[in-house]
Amino acid sequence: MTPPEVDPQRCGLRVLELVSAATKLTIVAPFITAAGIKPLLTALPRDAGLEVYTRWRPDEVAAGVSDPHVFDLVVARGGTVSLHPIVHAKAYLSASAALVGSANVTGNGLGWGHPGAVEILVGTSPSDPALAALIAVLRATSSTATEADRDAVLAAAAALPTAPLQAAAEPVDRTDWLPSYRMPEVLWLVYSGQREKDLTDFVRPELQALGVPSGIDSESAFNAYVGAILRQGFTGRIAQECSNLTTIRAVQRLTELSTARGIAVDDPGLLWETLAAWIARFMPGFQRIPGGTRLIR
Known about the structure:
By secondary structure, the protein is α+β, with helices and mostly antiparallel strands. It has helices at residues 12-20, 34-43, 58-63, 70-76, 107-110, 129-141, 147-159, 187-191, 197-210, 219-230, 233-242, 247-260, 268-282; strands at residues 24-28, 49-54, 80-83, 91-93, 98-101, 121-124, 143-144, 287-288, 295-296.
């Protein structure tokens, strides 16, 4: 008989043991639901720090495997939720212990209430180089979720058609991806097959990087989806840190963030102009000052 503490269908028991002794807890998982995280928040000491890294892709939210309402539960405990659209790791870290493996923060992943999926979580040190590198990348290229982000993703999920969507081709798994095509209004025309092949060849890499699934049937739903993805990861962090700045200061901050990631920027002003156009078009609440590239929200 499998001992309860290593039962692959009840991985949550090991997580609870780690959480109950934590002075600070870091959770990394692409899929987190309210039912999955509530037992962890109950077990977490009241004075413990809390940070959560996850992703809110609208199609996954619509499918119920990810839940932006987790934001409210985490914030109520004084924690933060950070977003990265291609995070796939699953890890649970305290100051002195860590578990890594396959289990998402869902009732099925952790086996709450009944045997769940067959998963694995392996104990390791939080200072393990691979784990430290993961956290460093996430902290450098994730955006801090806000109520506006939560609401935008929920709206994008609700706008998707009821017919099943076809998963996008393998996305460009770059944690530091930034858009380079200067006319974001063309994206929908290319996605919906309304533009010639020469233009499609320029724009298709942007759609691939965003991971937009096939089957979205309206421009408004498409724009909402793209905006939800742009709010997450490196683009979301730039939007948060560079808005409400003068154009000169925004370009400087963009250069600082890019340099920190080892990204060579030939023309920072042009890159900021491109980013500002994308953010203003796809992210409600942000707008450009007419006749300039200053972004406000």
